[in-house]
Amino acid sequence: MQTERQKEIIEAALVLINDKGIQGFTIKNLANKIGITEPAIYRHFTNKIQILISILEYFKTSTKDILKKELNNNDTSIEKIGHLFTNHFIRFSTTPSLVSVIFSEEVFRSEPILIEKITEVIERNDNILIKIICDGQANGEIRNDIEAKYLSIVIMGSLRLFVKKWQFAGNSFNLRAEGEKLIESIKLIIEK
Amino acid sequence: MQTERQKEIIEAALVLINDKGIQGFTIKNLANKIGITEPAIYRHFTNKIQILISILEYFKTSTKDILKKELNNNDTSIEKIGHLFTNHFIRFSTTPSLVSVIFSEEVFRSEPILIEKITEVIERNDNILIKIICDGQANGEIRNDIEAKYLSIVIMGSLRLFVKKWQFAGNSFNLRAEGEKLIESIKLIIEK
Amino acid sequence: MQTERQKEIIEAALVLINDKGIQGFTIKNLANKIGITEPAIYRHFTNKIQILISILEYFKTSTKDILKKELNNNDTSIEKIGHLFTNHFIRFSTTPSLVSVIFSEEVFRSEPILIEKITEVIERNDNILIKIICDGQANGEIRNDIEAKYLSIVIMGSLRLFVKKWQFAGNSFNLRAEGEKLIESIKLIIEK
Amino acid sequence: MQTERQKEIIEAALVLINDKGIQGFTIKNLANKIGITEPAIYRHFTNKIQILISILEYFKTSTKDILKKELNNNDTSIEKIGHLFTNHFIRFSTTPSLVSVIFSEEVFRSEPILIEKITEVIERNDNILIKIICDGQANGEIRNDIEAKYLSIVIMGSLRLFVKKWQFAGNSFNLRAEGEKLIESIKLIIEK
DNA sequence: GATGAATGAGAGTTCATTCAT
DNA sequence: GATGAATGAACTCTCATTCAT
To answer: CB of residue C42 closer than 7 A to nucleic acid strand E?
Structure first.
């Protein structure tokens, strides 16, 4: 459970990281953004690392929801992967600052505990995607001349780079609309 | 154009960024790594940003060589893209610290001049890759049911993620050997 | 004169000072130890200094009792000094945290009002001890080749150092039992 | 070996601790006292604890000189102890700030490494004093109805309290002159 | 070419204390 | 009586950078 202030701090942190990168994520900037003093932050988080951990936790939960929803419905595997993209696009369009977190492992290199946490998130997501692909290969939807592991790299790599480009372009194009074409391309690529 | 010391500084900076991320790239760490004092660094670079610029310059040149070589030989487009991967793998295996630079745009977020520089590098490379793909589509080697632009995202996204995973795994597997399978997968994906 | 909570706070403060020294005596630590919040402390004491003053007051009263009892009974002077030691040993064994207060004037260096207060306590005790010694010298019990003032330093200095060593040893030996030998030594030293 | 600046810092730290206690010993106060900025301190000591360690080291060396000198000359044991007092008095008169260090173990309670260090200093000095006393008892100079261990407490306790009183009185009396009488008293007390 | 010494700015964090509830 | 939230001041320490030598 998180208090209102904690949520506010996490969101401000997200925006800060998105706008100025890790270097811009300081307690002072954070406090200024929210309109309180620096020590006040420490009423809500014991230290800076805890804020980053909460961000990852936040991301982990929201990603899990997306992934699990796909795993357990009756769509075809191809459709599932399409939804995977769509859901990510929706999520990032709504909260562009999330992009910085998930695609910038760099942010979390400073502390072993953070590295551990993000590795865990990434691995879990990879496994779910690979499971979807394997299912698709098993029932003849997805091509099986390429190992699921490599297909997952192609899929996630494309998704990541596409979103990264959107971020680099200052969110200047419509992620979802433009993304549709990427989804179609991915589908053509993986189908049997 | 560069003195021995300057090269030494750039290489140490690369290693530092690779090992500990941006946060670990301080003038103090840099000086310690080389075995000189901090002010000595300023004999060779006017400031920290210039070091980062030189790193990008260094990367730009070495990438240009790889790309240009491919563009102007007589291989098929598919082969060119295969070589593109292979050459990157060789380069990263030789100098693993380069990975952090090219795939962690985060590092260069602090200064407008750096953002400009890296955007330039990325765009130039993109254009060259798209050119190769277009050629391949024109002469019937590469599938043309997917726009070159999207194919380039799939290709570069896969390459980036694969190398990133290698970095995250602490360079623990053989990038080139494992990478062969990725190259084969990419070839299967893009061929007509 | 003191509420239950006030006593509780004073005792917790004593333990804190004893365990971690002055640096460990913070309002936060104090509140944690008692299990209330920091502002709650201020319901019972107007500020931190008042807590220290209360500690001194507390110590002053309990010391006065010991000393006065000795002054006004019919024991010989030597016996009185023996009891002085014994009573201190009992008191410190019961409440080890008191040691830090009385022998660490350091704690009270921060504020003039505290310095004044502790000086007063020390002087008063000194005077009572000197009175006992003088009486003993007058009636031939105690050697008079040494001025009472210096004998008092020898006596109090020995007592203080002995207790300090006990504290430094983490209260690991039996203060009272071991202390018996010190009392015997002091008696041998001062008797005529 | 210590640089001039390091010595200057140690001496300023000593004065600071003496004047205002531990609480007054801050990097800021230290820097102000010397007339440099706070970061400059860190050129000379890696951190605050290192300064305290150096103070102890400094004290340890100067005490060792005093003690060793006594141990290895041809004076009687009683004379040795007399010199011990005199030398301490001279040392403290010259550098009054030293008093705070050696008699305020409190200062060093904050860090385990400091506790260890000061315990070591104290124990070593104790052992040397006990050795002197035992020698004196063996050759019939010093009374042997009291164990050396307790005599050492009486001697060191007296010395400490006397010096402490001098400090508390704001160094207002002549330590050495007044101290002569204490030395005489101690001699009377311990001689056979 | 390099060093020792220093600096202004700012980092994360803790302190005693206040105030509305 | 107590709490949650906040604050100004101060803390230790690190940063990139400068300058005289």
So the answer is: yes
CB D70 within 8 A of CB D88: no
Q: Check residue A112 and give its pLDDT.
A: 84
Model pLDDT for residues D29-56, shown as the tens digit of each residue: 999 999 999 999 999 999 999 999 999 8
Q: Identify nearest nucleotide to residue A42 by CA to C1′ distance.
A: E13
> Which amino acid, residue B17?
I
Per-residue confidence at D161, pLDDT binned at 50, 70, 90?
A: very high
Q: What ranges do the domains of chain B cover?
A: 53-190
Q: Please state, for a pLDDT cut of 70, what percent of chain B lies above it.
A: 99
Is C185–D147 a contact, with Cβ atoms under 8 angstroms apart?
yes
Residues of C in contact with D23 (CB under 8 A): 22, 109-110
User: What would the DSSP string read from start to end of C126-145?
Assistant: HHHHHHHHHHHHHTTSB--S
**DSSP string across D119-141:** HHHHHHHHHHHHHHHHHHHHTTS
pLDDT for D107 beyond 80: no
**CB-based contact, D128 to chain C, within 8 Å:** no
The pLDDT of residue B104: 67
Tell me the three state secondary structure of residue A142: strand
What's the pLDDT score for residue A104? Answer: 66
For residue B153, give the nearest of A122, A162, A188 by CB distance: A162
Amino acid letter, B55:
I
With beta carbons less than 8 A apart as the criterion, state whether C60 and C118 touch.
no
Least confident of A117-121, A124-128, B68-72, C58-62: B68-72
**Helix or strand or coil: residue C72?**
coil
Q: Are D52 and D35 in contact (CB under 8 A)?
A: no
In sequence order, the β-bridge partners of residue C191 are: C142
Report pTM: 0.89
pLDDT for the residue numbered D15: 92
Confidence of residue B145 (pLDDT cuts 50, 70, 90): very high
Q: Does residue D89 sit in helix, strand or coil?
A: helix
Q: State yes or no: pLDDT of D103 exceeds 80.
A: no
Task: Specify the nucleotide whose C1' lies closest to residue B23 (CA).
Answer: F15
Q: How far is the CA of C180 from the C1' of E9 (A)?
A: 61
CATH fold of C53-190? Tetracycline Repressor; domain 2 (1.10.357)
Beta bridge partners of C142: C191
Which among A21, A156, A181 has CB closest to B106?
A: A21
Assigned token pair, C138? 């007058």
Round to a whole number and report the distance in Å from the CA of A117 to the C1' of E7.
Answer: 39
- Alpha-carbon gap, residue B154 to B190, rounded angstroms: 9
- For residue range B42-64, list pLDDT tens digits in order: 999 999 999 999 998 888 887 77
Put simply, whether A114 touches B (Cβ < 8 Å) is no
Rounded CA separation D167/D161 (Å) = 10
Amino acid identity, position B185: S
Q: What share of chain D is helix, strand, coil (3-state, %, to 5)?
A: 80, 0, 20
Opening angle at CA C94, ends C93 and C97, nearest 5: 80
Do D and B touch, counting CB pairs below 8 Å (3 needed)?
A: no
D154 pLDDT more than 80: yes
CA atoms of A23 and A33, how far apart (whole Å): 15
DSSP reduced 3-state for A192: coil
Distance CA A166, CA C61 (A): 75
Residue A136: what pLDDT? 95
B92, B50 in Cβ contact below 8 A? no
